[in-house]
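Please produce the structure of this protein holding flavin-adenine dinucleotide.
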Amino acid sequence: MKKIAIIGGGVAGTTAALTLAAHECQITLFEKKSSLVGGPPFCHLHAGGNLYPDISIDQCIRLLEESFWFYRYFPFAVEQRPTLIVVPKKCELDPRYLVQRVQVLQKRYKKLCEEYGFAPFGDPKEYYTLFFEEDLKKACKIGQKDFPKTPHEWLAPVSAELKKENIKFPLILVQEYGLNIFRFSAGVDTVLNSFKNVTVKNGCEVLSLKKSGDGFEIEYKNEKSLDKDRYDIVINAAGFESEKIDRALHLKKERYLEFKAAYITRWDNDAVWPEIIFHGKRGTKNGMAQFTPYAFGFVQMHGMSKEITLFEGGLAKSDSQNRSPLNRSFYEKIDLGWDERELAQRTAKAIEHFKDFLESFPKKAKGYFKPLYGIQQIPGKNPDLRAAEVDIVSKNYFRCEIVKVSSAINMAKEIQKEIFKEVKENFDYLKILEEESLKQKAAEIARQRGYPSELSTLLNPPKLFPQTELPEHFIE
Ligand SMILES: Cc1cc2nc3c(=O)[nH]c(=O)nc-3n(C[C@H](O)[C@H](O)[C@H](O)COP(=O)(O)OP(=O)(O)OC[C@H]3O[C@@H](n4cnc5c(N)ncnc54)[C@H](O)[C@@H]3O)c2cc1C
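Below is the modeled complex.
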């Protein structure tokens, strides 16, 4: 039986373990942190790439397809709420350009639903909805719902808050859902620990590896002891630290590393909001503003300017020696945490970033919490790449290179095909998940990592099994 070592228990490593476990093999998953999926954060399922007007429509379609499957595998981590796309007057984008793109995406989504018989993002007819100025007035009258169901109900809480004089119309409500990292972590931990052929080694760092006959010898540190084992296959899923594993095998790979952060605040508002994107040119002071609502008035904010989410020197290319290229201060933030003053300042700037768009949020937002942050890798020469999967370096060494988490499914399928010549899909593992214990475990993980446990709460937990069925009426 093949012995497979997976180095890194982020989304890439856990997805590889979960899918490979359907085959006859023995898997060891090494994760140096105390829990799984504790690396760079994620909050958005990029089901159409509508946050990225600069990427090609082909990349958008690929993100849509990958997200379709991501939902199928990980419904327990999905927050079922749409995203409102807004183009500010200051931004040179024309909303009609975005409308053309969602039309293409809607067609592709409809085809996927027909082909596979399920509709994770709802009725394809409502994949997107356009709103004009008069719709905002109508939406104000709808009033707040406990949980909005129609596109107009989703618009209702936002309509009174939006500063209409600063935005272009139409607005686009698109079914790009949210993701919850704490739920993902809790769910995959439960599932992987239930598999007989998977050993999860948390708190276990791979120190070195070398070729050994047809396979590899891996040396690892477990609490206080050092150990060695031999494996037939190695999957390098170490995220931005993949280069260290490559280096041990004298392999080189070009990649970018990017440090980014999203900030948390809270405001007095009990309505259920969609996520909102206010587009803007990345890296400028008017860079895109992303408003991500959580339960109990918590809000996560991205601002794509160097004073908020992006950092001076925060994007760097790996040098030819494959050494870590970012300034030491970024790695220190990961290992030791943030300087309190910098965190307070950046959070305040993030709140202010919404002052041209939202009436009361910038005045009502209070306080700051530990930010969600980390370093992500972008393989190759193009730092704008958003859809990438896996580099099959040899028949027994794989390097996972996902940029967005949705790519993990295609990545895992490629690895399965290469090792076992077939892809097995079995969603029975979802049956072992139970909402109440998942909720508690996710809250505990959030607390352990220093976040308010409220951030682990889904406003609208999806059905885990069976999953969203195809609405009967949508196929004309
Ligand atoms: C601020 C921010 C916001 C983001 N938002 C989104 C979003 O909304 N949607 C989205 O799709 N993507 C988002 N991303 C990108 C997303 O976080 C990454 O694509 C994803 O987490 C990468 O997963 P991974 O498994 O490849 O790497 P990681 O999550 O980094 O996992 C690698 C793991 O390997 C472990 N490891 C490393 N070296 C060793 C070793 N020697 N031994 C044992 N373990 C080791 C690490 O501890 C880590 O847990 C965001 C990124 C950032 C920084």
